[in-house]
Here is the input.
Amino acid sequence: MPPNTKVIALANQKGGVAKTTTTLNLAAAFAETGHRVLCVDMDPQSNLTMSQGIDPDSLAASMYDVLVNRTPLEEVIVSREVDVACASIDLAGAEIAMSTQIGRERSLERALDPVRKTYDFVLIDTPPSLGLLTINALTASHKVIVPVQCEYLSMRGLIQLQNTLSMVRENLNPNVEIEGILPTLVDTRTVHAKEALEILEENFGDRVFASRIRNTVRFAEAPVRGMSVLKYEPDGKAAFAYRELAKEVLGNGKR
Here is the structure.
């Protein structure tokens, strides 16, 4: 594995915290700076796949086939704004289909091995659960970025994710670490959001990214056009925020 290849999972079992949005737009920001990037869609909802204008129902093979049937990952990669290893609704049945496999937690790790030399970054979008698909992503990753909406239930999910990470480190991947916690869908007009940000920073210190992803309708509009916000509105605040996040990640955690 080339030393510059970095595999990052985007994880939080709470849904609606901008995991997919962050996966795509951080990947696009990396690509803008000349890095080779692969996004892996591990969510049966296939939102990352659709966000690049790819119809999941039209795919001959998807991440289900990679995980269950050992189809080479290259066969499910589609090149758009960035390269995407595509998902379809079939992925919803992968956990049951994988349940009898030996080493089932390492299926994604094995699938990534042949393509690691091709990319500088592999970003993995995970489903809103801590099941086998997310465990596969954490086992295959060096780092985890945790998008956290600035509200109570999303922050509770962070505690559960930490417990799962501890289990993965103990049994499967001792080197996986939290790269950072990313405040998303921030509305600084509300007292609750400000209090939530304060609690995050008090409890996690410099593990909280300095970047703030503010709520904007652009995140809903861009996927309809099959593109990232960096392409949809390159000079907008949303695009700027993800470029700043990319700088933080590329700076090895310097806040």
The first helix runs from residue 19 to 32. The chain has a mean pLDDT of 91. Residues 6-250 form a domain with the Rossmann fold fold (CATH 3.40.50.300). Strands lie at 6-10, 37-41, 77-79, 83-85, 121-125, 143-149, 177-184.
